[in-house]
Structure formats: structure tokens, C-alpha cells
Amino acid sequence: MKHTLDILTAPTQLPDPIGEDAVVPYRGRKVYIENYGCQMNLSDAEVIRSILTRDGYGFTSAVDDADVILLNTCSVREHAEERVYGRLAELSSRKAGRPELVLGVCGCMAQRVADRMLDRAPYVDFVMGPDTYRNLPEALGATGGDPFLDVRLDRSEDYADILPIREEVVKAWLTIQRGCDKFCTFCIVPFVRGRERSISLASLVEEARGLGARGVREVTLLGQTVNSYDDGEHEFADLLNAVAEVDGIERVRFTSPHPSDATGAMIRAMGGNPKVCAHMHLPMQSGSDDVLRRMRRTYTVEEYLRVVDDLRTHVPGVAITTDIIAGFCGETADDHAATCDVMRRVRFDSAFMFRYSPREGAVAHKKHPDDVPEDEKIRRLREIIDLQEAVSREVYAGHVGSVVSALVEGPSKRDPSDLYGKTDDFKTCVFPGRDAQPGDIVRVRVESATAHTLIGRIVS
Ligand code: SF4
Known about the structure:
Blueprint: E1 30-35, H1 39-54, E2 58-59, E3 68-73, H2 78-97, E4 102-107, H3 108-113, H4 116-120, E5 126-128, H5 136-141, E6 148-150, E7 171-175, E8 177-178, H6 189-193, E9 197-198, H7 201-213, E10 218-222, H8 236-244, E11 251-255, H9 264-272, E12 279-281, H10 289-295, H11 301-314, E13 319-326, H12 333-346, E14 350-355, H13 363-367, H14 374-397, E15 403-411, E16 418-423, E17 428-432, E18 441-449, E19 453-459
Parallel strand pairs: 1-2, 1-3, 3-4, 4-5, 5-6, 7-10, 10-11, 12-13, 13-14, 17-19
Antiparallel strand pairs: 8-9, 15-16, 15-18, 16-17, 18-19
Helix pairs in contact: 7-8, 8-9, 12-14
Bound molecules: iron/sulfur cluster.
């Protein structure tokens, strides 16, 4: 799954204070949520909105208007955690003039750091892990005494009965699975989000029907290893096909799959069902078997390349993107060269590339010395970024002259007189189009390209 260190969503808007499902009248208290990290946190924020709306809270996009400030945090990199501490210190000054202001932390960092957060940020009122959001109303009501701390992991918690309150109109995340059983040695997700559990296909299809009826055109199925989905009766391919059948849903995507769970049935669903998008984000992490073994990724380079070949054989026009870590424990110059070789061979459409940083609590932190010098990690990262940029530029340039279909998402950020959307294979596409509306699927002739964007014109 892609993690970024940026705040990915604007904080939420003030909704109708008493929604249809609300069971408590509006209390007159507004919550401001600030999200950090990956798509799973964005999806969790939609669950939190639902839980708090039912308990009579409203929401605001202005931190100055908030009665409750909630940081929904990420723990995947140390830098992300330091940013949260910095932000908390900044926000704490507001409490001096407004002692009734509630400041809370939830998400992966809250789970990982738990009560130690209260040592460093004693002004925090509550700390909640990802499996305890049902207790948020209790946490928000328990002010004035000791800080409220709830970081229990709960194998049975999947929030399947809570209908998320989504802000997106055209696209929606659909969390199909929580937790992870893979225990890659560099990652702390299994320790902060618990063991893998899947939500039933029937419940997910029901939710997708509601989305389709509301005008959502594209659904992204979300899970830490999304393609290991197993509700006891159905596998991932069944779910892909079932969601694709829902009226109104025109596109189905998913993120992030694990190479070891890439089955023939999944690849057949991608190749055979026109609503399943021809894009696979397939995290490789390294092109060296030795490094993959130390990472406990459970596949070899050869097995990874077999999945790539199967996708390219059976899914016409498929785009393959990836994640790569530079400078993992024990990575030699030859290991790094092997990663570059695989990148040249696969020619990924794009990649998220990071330099390794150890995470306290992850297996590698205890087992493998972080022995690649920092300047060497930076040099290797620079090399793979330069390599990928060159490949991406060629791959994107290869689309010039072709016609792609794009789901219109809204005005382009760079020039609001243009529109932007995503192609079926997950490329950003920008085009003038005053007649098209968000939610339209348009055909665009590509006239030029950068390493990250296709630029063109709508054709009839
Ligand atoms: S598959 Fe590995 S990297 Fe992904 S969430 Fe699970 S442990 Fe972390």
C-alpha cells in the first residue's frame, strides 16, 4: 500500500448535523480531522465520521472552529511521527486559551506509541488505536480527568456494520479487509493493525450497491494485501466480479495486492471483465532474492517476474506500478544493481521509491543491522528514481497519439480551466473540456506527455 507523508485530505466539511442515521441530536460540537498516511487512514476517517455523526457531532474544515481536533496518524516512517509531534505541540497552544478544546490522536502511530505519547505530549486528551474507534464517543465525553487511552487490538473488529460517510462523489474507497498476516520484516502494520480479516462479500456488494445508486462510478477495493481476500466462501476474484456487476459502478480498482497472492483467477478477472481496471500496483521492494528473503516477502524475483508476465499476457494494456526500498539491511552494491536490472526489464509505469528507515517494533529493527550508510542509501535511491523517471517518460510518451478513456474528477489543479481524470490504467490525464462533468467517462486523444501526466483533448 502506498504511504505518503503528506496530509492527504483537506479536513472535513460541516455536514448536515443530524444525518438520516444519527441516533443522537446534534450536540453543537464540531470535529476537525487531519489525516496522515495511506488510503486506509482516509477510509478509516470515513468510518470515524460515521461513528461521531451518529453520536451527535458535526464536522468542520477549519481548525479554528473545532471543539475537537483529531489527528489520524501514520507510523510507517519516523519522519511521519515526528511531524505529528510537531503538529501536536503547535495545537497544544490553543488549549491554553480554550481548556475545553479536546485534542486526540488515533491511527497507527497512536497504536504503536500508545501511552508513551502521553509522556511526550501530556496535553493530549485521548489516544485510540485503529480497532477501537467505536469507543470514540466515550473518549470525547471523558474529558477533564486522566487522558483516555484505548489501543486494544481486536481480531473481530471490521466495522462492517458501519456505513462510512464519504465526501468523494465520483469515486469511493471500499475497505474489504483489515490487518495483515504477512509480517514483512521492515513493516509494523501487522503490529498496529492486527491480523488479517475480510468483510463478507454480501456486505461489500450491498455497500457497493448503495454507492452505485448515489452516483459513484469508480470503487477502489482496499486492503493491506487486498488480493488475499477470503471471507470463508469467496476469494478475491469473486469479489472483483461481484462488485463489477453492481449497477452504476463502471470501474473497479484495488490496492495494494501482494505478489504471492496473485492467482490465475484474479488475473482472469482483470483480463476478462471490462469493468476491472487494467492496472496492478505490484510492490516489488527489491530485485535481489537475498534482500527479499531478509524482508520476508515470500516470493523470489523469478516468481515476481512470472506474475508480471502473466499480467502482460492476459490483461491487455495493463499498467504495472510498484514500490521499491533502497538500502535495506545488508543490501550490497550487487543487490542494488539487481534491483536496477529488474526495473529495466519490467519497465514499470511508475513507482513509489523510498530509502529504508528502521521502525522500532518491526522485525528488521531487532534482527537485521541497518548497515547501509545513509549517504549510500541516498545515492542508491537517487539512481533508482532517475532510472524510473526515464522509463516513465518513455512509457507515457508511448501513449501520445492514442485514445484513452478518462473518468473526469474535476478541474485541474494547475489550470482550473482544464479538467483532469484518471485513465483506466491509472494515469493522470489533463484536457480542456467545458462540457464534461465530474463522473463522466470521456475519450481523450493524447497529444503530449510528461513522466507523470498525459495531456490531450476530448474526442467524440
Ligand atoms: S504485506 Fe508486508 S508491507 Fe504490506 S502491510 Fe503487510 S507486512 Fe506491511
